[in-house]
Amino acid sequence: MIPRYSRPQMASIWSDQSRYEIWLEIETLAAEAMEQLGTIPAGTSKVLRDKGAFDIQRIDEIEREVKHDVIAFLTSVSEHAGPEARFMHQGMTSSDVLDTCLAVQLTRAADILLADIDALLAALKRRALEHKYTVTVGRSHGIHAEPTTFGLKMALGYAEFTRAKERLLRAKEDVGTAAISGAVGTFAHLDPRVEAYVAEKLGLKPEPVSTQVIPRDRHAMFFATLGVIASSVERLATEIRHLQRTEVGEAEEFFSEGQKGSSAMPHKRNPVLTENLTGLARLVRGYAIPAMENVALWHERDISHSSVERLIGPDATVTLDFALARLASVIDKLVVYPEKMKENLERGGGLVHSQQVLLALTQAGVSRENAYRLVQRNAMRAFRGEGEFLAFLKADADVTAALAPEKIEALFDPQHHMRNVDVIFGRVFGA
Amino acid sequence: MIPRYSRPQMASIWSDQSRYEIWLEIETLAAEAMEQLGTIPAGTSKVLRDKGAFDIQRIDEIEREVKHDVIAFLTSVSEHAGPEARFMHQGMTSSDVLDTCLAVQLTRAADILLADIDALLAALKRRALEHKYTVTVGRSHGIHAEPTTFGLKMALGYAEFTRAKERLLRAKEDVGTAAISGAVGTFAHLDPRVEAYVAEKLGLKPEPVSTQVIPRDRHAMFFATLGVIASSVERLATEIRHLQRTEVGEAEEFFSEGQKGSSAMPHKRNPVLTENLTGLARLVRGYAIPAMENVALWHERDISHSSVERLIGPDATVTLDFALARLASVIDKLVVYPEKMKENLERGGGLVHSQQVLLALTQAGVSRENAYRLVQRNAMRAFRGEGEFLAFLKADADVTAALAPEKIEALFDPQHHMRNVDVIFGRVFGA
Amino acid sequence: MIPRYSRPQMASIWSDQSRYEIWLEIETLAAEAMEQLGTIPAGTSKVLRDKGAFDIQRIDEIEREVKHDVIAFLTSVSEHAGPEARFMHQGMTSSDVLDTCLAVQLTRAADILLADIDALLAALKRRALEHKYTVTVGRSHGIHAEPTTFGLKMALGYAEFTRAKERLLRAKEDVGTAAISGAVGTFAHLDPRVEAYVAEKLGLKPEPVSTQVIPRDRHAMFFATLGVIASSVERLATEIRHLQRTEVGEAEEFFSEGQKGSSAMPHKRNPVLTENLTGLARLVRGYAIPAMENVALWHERDISHSSVERLIGPDATVTLDFALARLASVIDKLVVYPEKMKENLERGGGLVHSQQVLLALTQAGVSRENAYRLVQRNAMRAFRGEGEFLAFLKADADVTAALAPEKIEALFDPQHHMRNVDVIFGRVFGA
Amino acid sequence: MIPRYSRPQMASIWSDQSRYEIWLEIETLAAEAMEQLGTIPAGTSKVLRDKGAFDIQRIDEIEREVKHDVIAFLTSVSEHAGPEARFMHQGMTSSDVLDTCLAVQLTRAADILLADIDALLAALKRRALEHKYTVTVGRSHGIHAEPTTFGLKMALGYAEFTRAKERLLRAKEDVGTAAISGAVGTFAHLDPRVEAYVAEKLGLKPEPVSTQVIPRDRHAMFFATLGVIASSVERLATEIRHLQRTEVGEAEEFFSEGQKGSSAMPHKRNPVLTENLTGLARLVRGYAIPAMENVALWHERDISHSSVERLIGPDATVTLDFALARLASVIDKLVVYPEKMKENLERGGGLVHSQQVLLALTQAGVSRENAYRLVQRNAMRAFRGEGEFLAFLKADADVTAALAPEKIEALFDPQHHMRNVDVIFGRVFGA
User: Which residues constitute the signal peptide according to the record (chains A, B, C, D) (predicted)?
Assistant: First the structure.
């Protein structure tokens, strides 16, 4: 997490200030519940609401001595709230506070990411509808295959990020549990209803069975899901990088006035935003493995997960937030060149229609193997630059024996490939 | 995927025979649909049902020449089915067959894994109920914390694998789509209803928008999910390895008659099964990253994902199947030593009750900080082996000023920690 | 490791037959050494040399009972060699055999990989010299930058795989140690000279300090190195995939007679080999993480590394061997299109010479910022397709105020970029 | 990289201030070389030395407009140095500055890490010599195996980090190259001697063949090496965590006055430092994969590697620096309990001597299989807690038929296992 790739709202979730505020809220809510249950005398929660405060510098100072962050925090709060706060944290263990706080942070982070995805979806949908019938060549293996439309490319992204959204919703739910269950999760000194109360107030669910900590398979699933979403970011970014290649030139990242592409070569306009997204995706993906390694804690917990989460908690969410927002902006402002798409499509001299010919030949009674051979031999000549594919076909007696020249010509109409675009759009965007 | 870590049912999903059978089924179903829609003349599907066959050696032979597996397969089928099969595969692209087949294989694999998890859950539940109140020490940081029960450890595993099951169900659904959409996904030469028909017959959903391939974010999510489940396997395996340590000795993998623990040291009984599971988890987890790297294919597809999937498709599912089955068996036959658990719990001379004392002191009006100090100074003496914790407390005037010795003694009853076990079991296993 | 991506020589290293042969050799050499040192009576090694044999099926059978592979092997050998073999393995532990065997396998595998790299280097050098001065456009961000040569691209690969070779030599050395040090590495029942003898005979070094096993940081380094080399394979493969794109068309994988590019589109010639290499690189890279996770074994060893190595030992080496050999063949037979390179270079209307102009302007006294602005404004017009860059410059009074038109024209000579090619080749290939 | 896990010296390498200082130094050195070669008029370098300065806020401001960091930097420097600086950066490309700077940063980081390792080695050596003959039980699979010494455990760490040092030295060398080769690495507007001059002054080597960038296989190797070293940190940390377990209690992290182990349980002293190291190792290891994914840049470069390096450059080096320093301190201050080691060793009732008995039996003429059976049957009874292993052996007629009771007793002397400790120390620490 570095300022260059951070947005303030997401970054602020991970500030010391936010964390301690959440801790204080958890302690206060727990005290409220205990008071209601009569476990502790009334008054603590009111004191915490009225005078509960902390001092970050003071916490740091205490922590340097006691080497324990929650104890340092509680001491600082006690210093503000006075002796009446002494029932705060009763029967709880540090992880009750830490893990419930992390759940709050991760669900808040998930909410921002969900909003990011919504913005991206809106951009993708707008561009999809705009270019629903903008013909472009479909490429497999980087090689021209058959016509498709630019709108379909955007629709593909839309469908992919709709899945991303569903996955993130599940991951948010997975990670959204609170535990106020004590030293080894037995509620030895706690009433389980405290946990239920705190959870409900924070929009979380109680963890059905915890140890000292909330099980880390939940967090592993969360970060793995971010890794998959980041990989979808990379896919769309890679598509745009390809389209912007000099030789392709079908689309281009918006290049603002005043922007400089290269210190040495003033002519350059580079797809630096999507290249950047490709790198960011590698980072987010990379955090999935440490998160999975965090699952196998020893017995009722060891603290090895903590350092990992202190870094990847912010790093993964902040980076993915930045990446999604950047991608939405790239899509939104993408400069699209339909003329260039048409030009590229046609440059192959109609080779992209080879399957049409193949099918027409088989339908005219030629065996599949022979049809393939006939088409390939003419395609290869065209591919070698010896002339036009259509002309070769019309001059090939074996071909014309099955298909009349006019029939062959009709097979070279790109509109043929448009006929089910509407069906697909219906599936993706609804009727 | 090596025989040592394979079970036949899962491995057979990935055999050449299975794959080609699924391909043939897909081609036959597609022909049926096309015939119903009138796209191809009636007859092909019947020919395929009656005479459709393939010869693996022949396919290999053809593939060596044409360097294309689906073409080799179609040729072999044609050789068996004769010229009437020439409408087979019409308008389809190889990936229509390959990707729909992969969806069939992965959903079948998921079904086996789901059954594996069910068996594991059954074993965990049985052992949880059996040991619901078997007292054992809970450990955080590998250090004695407070009492818990062995049943709770099993219940924790049960809850974790219940989550694993839910995740796998979603991952199965995510990866369970069919695409019969042609060269670049436009249905240029196909009716979308063919896809719908084939999908339904195979228990899949139609892919809303595909390119030449089904988008790989689906597969990435699938393999990432397997990685998270494998990490849960590792967690439980690590727990057992710890319990079997010589100094702990609280549980032990079943050691069969005739088994030899060590070639050099005949006295040894090693937790080799759970150590093995730890390694297998590393493998399955490792496959998540290549699967995520597979997402960013170029344009309407490149084939870089294929080699990855040829290996990790079998490797990840076969290894996880083996691991889950092994874990279920380990749990089922685990030899548990409640006496040893009791002995270990007591070895600390009651230090595990320090929080009870801490709470009683604060409830008796001592400030949190002072109570902590009082308990810690006596605990540390006991920890250093200078004597019994309880005795020290009863001899500490500052402590007895707040708590009468009989009161202190009562705090040392492990039963105190059992009072919410039933609540937790209710949450995990239902009322 | 699947036949499709395996070559027999590398695969055979990992066969049961090979492994047991190496085990027998280790046991025999150890017996020789012990006899020479008088630790065991003379005769065992001769018996092992003369009658030492094993039966794989029999080993499997015994292992099913005793659940210990080395004990099963020793029993099978004893059955062949008779009672005189009873001093075999004396004082040794299974890992002495297993780990020393793995060192033999990995160093043999490294030797094959080194030979693969040599073949690749030879192909790269040949193509580099062939195309030393074949001008092509250099691209940064996928955008035309300045001219370079195709030979330099090959030289870059040559230098990179020279580094790969050096890294592999070190990794081979790192992993090339033998341990015959007994149950926990103390040589309690062994003379360290046995280890030294066995190591020397096998071309290994003695492990300075082992536990029950050879430390796994060695293996982690080995597999991490393979991952880096695989990433270099991916880089070169990606270069070729880009060059073969329809719009670029500067080079092409050799496409054999009879080969079929697509089942549906007979015109296609796809870079399937290099796409495949991209996928294989992901696999090999992915094995680095489990190998690193293998390092932290418990105390004097746990066996969690074993299952990992049983899979990634073969998988990583066999896959990388296949990939390197495939890459060498791709480079060797790569079809290069210098005319197309020239055409692409020129398509930008000389924009690639913008830096030349920029420099000439600054040398003529224009400030860096102004020069940049002058060049960029003309470049952008050309980039937008409004006309020729050279013409715009010659018509820009601010430019011609500093540079005469003839001077500008001279700046557009690609030969300017060739002048240090020979220097670079000297650095890479020697004088 | 977060303050909690950062040390100032390493962190400062990655500050904006440091980076721009290195950039300025590179520009100045390049100008010096160009002046000496007569490529640019004399004066620029003197101006840069005398008046060369930059303003970080101003750079940020300019970058927001031009979206290019090096151009922003050059502009800021120009604003300070005036028009005489206009020959600065002539013929160079941004990456010449960026990549050479990164090489300086990574080699400086490597130097700090090397010093860290030296400090760790010193601590390990001191503790190894101190505990050379401190007997402790060796454990395989977490199960008592045979005696070893605590000094050998430290010697193992010493040997492992000696390897880590060698690997890091190579990685430093690998990454220590400068490139001042222009837009696509052809030295089109530069004399290669400029690169040589700058490299030498910065303690780097010239990159033999670069594109726009220094090839990323070098960086991948660097970060992969850090990942392997981090895994060695994890191994040693895991060892200590095990030794500190309540039931084992053989060693303990130093626990300072005032330190608090648990907010709830005042008796606890947890191995939090080594648990923390375990987590940090996961992080550093995780950065290896993105670094490897960075290798396959497109053509003469794309900028996807940049965002990755901006994060993992600091994160990996700062985290590993922190981890190595923490580990050195843990080892240095580790509290070792030899009495507890002895107690644990003896708790098995001599089972750890089973191999001694096995060997004595075979040497007395019993076949290997029979000897194994005899030892195992008595060991298992002892293991089940039915009595003492030694007593069982002496009461087993089949055993005493081969070995007299006194002979058996003599086999139970732990000193037997010490006889080669000195040999091993000689190998590790030299004579």
Answer: none
SS3 content of chain D, % helix, strand, coil (to 5): 65, 5, 30
DSSP A398-425: HHHTTS-HHHHHHTT-GGGGGTTHHHHH
Whether C245 and A146 lie within 8 Å, measured CB to CB: no
Residue C255, phi then psi, degrees to nearest 5: -120, 110
User: How many other C-beta atoms can be found within 10 angstroms of the C-beta atom of residue A387?
Assistant: 13
**Residue found under tokens 């009972």:** C65
Which residues of A are annotated as catalytic?
141, 262
From CA C89, how far away is CA D367, in angstroms rounded?
12
- Positions of B marked catalytic: 141, 262
Q: Do D65 and A258 touch (CB under 8 A)?
A: yes
- Sign of the torsion angle spanned by Cα atoms B269, B273, B279, B282: negative
CB D286 to CB A290 under 8 A?
yes
Chain D: list its partners (3+ Cβ pairs within 8 Å). A, B, C
Q: What are the residue numbers of the active site of D?
A: 141, 262
Min distance B105 CA to chain D CA atoms (Å):
29
CATH of D348-414, picked from 1.10.10.60, 1.10.40.30, 2.60.120.10, 3.40.190.10, is 1.10.40.30
What fold characterizes domain B93-342?
Answer: Fumarase C; Chain A, domain 2 (1.20.200)
Give the chain C residue nearest A383 (alpha carbons). Answer: C267
Q: What distance in Å separates the CA atoms of residue C29 and residue C200, rounded to the nearest whole number?
A: 10
CATH top class, domain D92-253+265-341: mainly alpha
- A16 contacts: CB under 8 Å, gap ≥ 6: A56
Using CB atoms, list chains with 3+ pairs below 8 Å to chain B.
A, C, D
- Record the pTM: 0.96
Mark whether C307 is an active-site residue. no
What tens-digit pLDDT sequence spans chain B (431 residues)? 788 999 999 999 999 999 999 999 999 999 999 999 999 999 999 999 999 999 999 999 999 988 889 999 999 999 999 988 888 998 899 999 999 999 999 999 999 999 999 999 999 999 999 999 999 999 999 999 999 999 999 999 999 999 999 999 999 999 999 999 999 999 999 999 999 999 999 999 999 999 999 999 999 999 999 999 999 999 999 999 999 999 999 999 998 766 776 666 666 789 999 999 999 999 999 999 999 999 999 999 999 999 999 999 999 999 999 999 999 999 999 999 999 999 999 887 788 898 889 889 988 989 878 888 899 889 888 877 788 899 999 999 999 999 999 999 999 988 889 999 999 999 999 96
Taking each helix axis from N to C terminus, what angle separates A69-81 and A94-130, rounded to the nearest 10 degrees?
100
3.10.450.50, 3.40.50.1820, 1.10.10.10, 1.20.200.10: which CATH number matches C94-255+265-346+418-431? Answer: 1.20.200.10
What CATH superfamily is the domain A93-258+266-341?
A: Fumarase/aspartase (Central domain) (1.20.200.10)
DSSP assigned state of A295: S
Give the per-residue pLDDT at A265: 66
CATH architecture entry for B351-411? Orthogonal Bundle (1.10)
Q: What is the DSSP letter of C71?
A: H
The C-alpha atoms of residue D22 and residue D29 are separated, in whole angstroms, by: 10
Alpha-carbon gap: A2 to the closest alpha carbon of chain B (Å): 24
Q: What CATH number has the domain spanning A344-429?
A: 1.10.40.30
Residues β-bridged to residue A206: A178
Each domain of chain D, given as residue ranges in start order, spans 92-253+265-341, 348-414
Of the partner residues B286, B298, B311, the one whose CB lies closest to the CB of residue C289: B286
The token pair that represents D16 in the structure block = 């904006």
D319: closest CA among D407, D403, D228, D230? D230
Q: Which of C69, C111, C92, C56 is nearest to C310 (CA)?
A: C69
C1-90 CATH fold: Fumarase C; Chain B, domain 1 (1.10.275)
